[in-house]
Amino acid sequence: MAICLPSLDVLSDSILASTGLKGTISLRRPLPSIRIQMSRLGWHFAFVGTFAMVGGAIRGFNLPLVLAGLIVGALLMHWRLGRRTIEAIECRR
Fold it and tell me: Count of H helices and E strands in the chain?
């Protein structure tokens, strides 16, 4: 048994109709436009990870590939964590 719920657009239209307001209303939260740049250390990690990945793939060694996976994984995890932390910052006066 499936339960069908109205979408946000239907809810906003019904709110506008019941209050008599004209125009559009959005119940969705706008996405923040935050631009995050990598630091010098981040570029260094990316270079070392790429170098280890290419070197391990060319020579067929598994250890550089594992090292590259760890480095790139740490870089991506810290990027996501940093972005989420910056988005959560609120300033009040």
Answer: 3, 0
